[in-house]
Amino acid sequence: MSSADSGKHSSQWTPGARRGLDRQVRVSTSTRRSRFSGNPNATGIASALLKWFPSAARDMPWRRTLDPYAIWVSEIMLQQTQVKTVIPYWERWMRELPTIDALANAPLDIVLRLWEGLGYYSRARNLQKAARILVARHRGRIPDDPSELLELPGIGRYTAGAIGSIAFDRPDAILDGNIIRVFCRLRVLPGDPRAPELNRRLWSLAAAVVVAAKALPAPAGVPRTGLRFAGNCSRMNQALMELGATVCRVSNPDCGDCPLNSICRAHALRAPHRFPTAKAGPKVVQRRLATVVWSTGPKWLIRRRSDDEVNGGFWEFPNQEIARDTDAAAALAGWLRVPVDSLEPRGRCRHSITRYRIVEEIFSLTRPPGRNLPAGELRWVDRETLAAIPLTGAHRRIKTRLVDNHTATGTSGRAALPRPICGGKRPV
Fold first, then answer.
1. Residue 155 vs residues 33, 139, 174, 270: alpha-carbon distances, Å
2. Which residues face 422 on adjacent strands?
């Protein structure tokens, strides 16, 4: 499960703060024992979490099945995406593509349409590539061998461990943002968790905990009705993720209700917010696009993004990137080889893709095509086709405000269109 449910960590270390905490960590044995009752060792962590998890586990649809395919799809969707967002997408995906064979044989447009709105669209393309490999090499079944899972597109160490432990009850380690936060707080581990030395320590602890869980008896607690777990390894790794997402949160951790508070060193020091050390995010890049919604009769012009582009395989209204100080209408008219006064300004669309903050200047154009069409894979499509094909998130909103309004009113719909057309920080 992704760590997206917990947001971003904002604390930063200063040299003085780091030295001060180091002095706190080096407290006397007697003082330390008065603050917590034990050491955060693997068996202690596993035992406490296995007792806590049955009653704490959230009811998620993929926890009601042990189907490795369903679990795999959920893990891919949950990367960088919150649970509440994923649930309806997962349910629709499993209805439309219930098996690996169905995914392998589906048209790419269907796969992308089902994924539309989740962002990070290479995940969907890699799912289908992996499904086709599974059909060709494994008779449409997901192997329980981690080395074979790691050979599939889109599956790294975390996802292989999640599938192995959750679906097959293998003692395979997982490490995501939630679990990193839990471990760094338990053992007051400062530093960047992505740094090689600390990352190795965290993976080692994750492996020790799930191996310890394998050796423990099954918990006596009764899980919520309908939830299914393959065994202690399945419970253990999901418990770690659950703890980070719901209790050991980035902000305002609920230390009072944490099953590990008696062995948590950061809690003993009253400094959970210090861990893990935050790293500055990537620099934000501003981009500006000029976009044309070109119609002729009842059809609109769209272009497919190439596979090597962000959002590859998706359709969109033709657009080109322009400089910040460029006149958008003039640039678009030059690109399309049409008079500037044939382009009607229709507002702006603001959206984000990872570190890019994008402003699209939208223009409508109503004239028959000549030899002035932009390059690329183009189609003239009607409203029904636009509703069925995969569009990038921003262009789906442009379509809703311009094309649907145009069709409903029988006019260009200009009076009903406030500015901006769309906006916000949600990735598309």
1. 42, 19, 12, 37
2. 349
